[in-house]
Amino acid sequence: xxxxxxxxxxxxxxxxxxxxxxxxxxxxxxxxxxxxxxxxxxxxxxxxxxxxxxxxxxxxxxxxxxxxxxxxxxxxxxxxxxxxxxxxxxxxxxxxxxxxxxxxxxxxxxxxxxxxxxxxxxxxxxxxxxxxxxxxxxxxxxxxxxxxxxxxxxxxxxxxxxxxxxxxxxxxxxxxxxxxxxxxxxxxxxxxxxxxxxxxxxxxxxxxxxxxxxxxxxxxxxxxxxxxxxxxxxxxxxxxxxxxxxxxxxxxxxxxxxxxxxxxxxxxxxxxxxxxxxxxxxxxxxxxxxxxxxxx
Length: 296
Hints:
By secondary structure, the protein is of the alpha/beta class. It has 14 helices and 9 strands.
């Protein structure tokens, strides 16, 4: 039985850790909010009072944290107090957070110095994908390390692809967030457009989903947007952070992303209006406001 130390049991990490337990792994989890750790215990896992305790004796360590500084703080610390420094040679670290590609590369280099394999393996599929273990996993890092970690990744995802060396997983995730953000904005605009013309939006979405306009974003997000249900599956705050990663990486590479830059501005505006804790489908609220059709 592979022992897994899981750090970060939030909206995504919690159900992912629970699915690893279901798959037969021995999972010890840690989260800064103790109640989330207790949910893992209720699902059959073990709770830890610290990240250090969670990774003690682990064969594989998984991190699922909000941003680059969080991952660096946990894995690197200020030296010998970081998780990587505590691991035995041959241990594998799989960071499934969404962070900057350059940070992912630096983490892999730090792991290599201690004989620890580090994969950057961010995911896509949202909360429901985490619950259903159908996430898409885009992994960067050493190919042999990826193959060794494959059984663990198979327990949380459905589409698992090794996309290249360290940092490649995060680069692909950035592209994913670019596409998702742009598509969400267009879905929001389409829904307001349809409503302005008095069209039954639910029926319109049904037929649009069957044509070239169909997408996973339309399928998964339009029903909640139509119901004005913005309970977070993926928060505006996080998508705002991700689009910051995209724009910075594009600028570094000298790539023009005019539509992506506009969507990043709109997401930032939505956040500034106090919707950071809402689902990113709340882009609909902003389009309604810009169109003079806001309900409140």
